[in-house]
Please model this.
Amino acid sequence: MFNAKETYKGIAAAPGFAQGPLFLFQESNLTLPEPYQCKDPEIAWERVLSAIEDSKKEIRSMRARVLQEAGKEQAAIFDAHEMMVDDAALHEMTQASIQEGINPEKAWFESVEVFADMLADLPDPLLSARAADVRDVGRRVLAHLLGIQAPANVLMTPSIVIARDLAPSQTALMDHSMVLAFCTAEGGPTSHTAILAKALRIPAVVGLGDAILEIQVGDLALVDADSGRVTVNPDAEDQAAFLKLSQVAAGQRFADLSTAFEPAVTFDGKQVEVVANIGGLADARQSIEMGAEGVGLFRTEFVYLNRKSLPTLDEQVNIYRQIFDTMIGKPVVVRTVDIGGDKQIDYLGINQEPNPFLGWRGIRMISEKPEILSDQLLALMLAARDDADLRIMLPMVSQVEEVLQARVLLDEAYAKLRQQYPDCTRTYQFGMMVEVPSAALTVEHFAPYVDFYSIGTNDLTQYTLAADRMNARVANLASPFHPAVLSLIERTVRIAHEHGKWVGMCGELAGEPLAVPFLLGIGLDEFSMSAAAVPAIKRIIRKLNSVDCQPVARNTLTCHSADAVREYLQSELNRLIAV
Ligand code: PEP
Ligand code: MG
Model:
């Protein structure tokens, strides 16, 4: 006897398709004890504090795991949790109730509820959604107070996870390699389950209603998280239709891959370069497989990190040559070493700085330690064969003097090369990153000394918005879609073109599908991104008309916020691709 077929409709929260057995997520059974009179408020409060401390340890370990698997934006949820559990007003309210003789479990639970209700009542849906986080944190502390261990919820086989509403910590704690999809009875598209699922590339449907909780564990289900449909115990017809749909989606990825080697030419015939950001040889190989037309950013820091002394000239030549030989004649933009900021090297004896991102970083080391750059430049010259398309670029430039100093070292390195190999015909281009607002605002001053510019939106964003890129608490401020950042980008491209220079972009923004109409509209020449993003970005470029993108770029700059920019670009992208 088969269980009956049921279809549920919810909200598509993270795209994708999944098929597999159902797993019902078990909640902890946190029943409050019968109210009792608290005799020693101090001891009771100590118990609450110790439960808070235990909870904080768990929160930190979840943060570390999510940081590794999904990135810092998602890990920021747990910073917020740590702040919530430490909230002074929440502590005061709990302590005051305990002083009145209320038992600590009840005092904590009720204080958390007051807070969560206050948030839930706020009109802003993003803030009111945080009520679920406060309750999640509250339950964690309560479980410690009650001495209850959360159910393990261990998945033995790849499954579709059904839950009332998964808290971020619950989502984070599951073995993601076993989760085929998340389906929740409650929750909205901006819930953390949705955000986390997207980052983990796990399909998710939320808001399916309580009926979904009635399912039989182990029953087969089909999840179409593109349209928000879940079918339990599907018949043969459903399965066939589902297969077709999921094949179309997989086909898109496949089609992207199969056209990945075609050039990125817009509908009206404008060709741009789509290249990859690499950190070493493995990335270089992957970039070729993904159809990258070269390297737009080779981060050379790895050559210097995790060692006890500077690499020798020979060591460097070896490493660089492997990369050039892999890229066989394709352009390779090598960024000279960008030490400092978040990448510290002990053997250089750099003092601990209070603000490393505003300190002795990148090209700034040239005046104190020019030999590091001289050696690297010579190694690059020696490693590149005559047919290599070598493009050398400086990081963190904020003053013209830095470029002038570097040019002297570059000329010296070239002279040494010619001394050693008088017949060589090697050429190279010389460029700089535009990642500090001062450079973007004075692009013209650099023009006589460089062949090209490459915009580093990761740093340009942090410096423009004064939001540390490593600090998860300000991650929401640090959007490259902010109109201030976009306007520096637009200026850079416009002025560089007026001076006959080409401009690339190697910050994360270049790999964002949403940014493509804007970047094409302002005339960006080269898009550099992680290799995996190359096929889809090339497809989008091919579908757009560069002339149609020009008014879109102009309008984008009149938007007042990063959110408004995203919303506008999304609607334009849909419209332009549909045309
Ligand atoms: C940037 O800042 O945008 C960039 C590409 O450099 P990195 O991320 O290495 O600082
Ligand atoms: Mg940078």
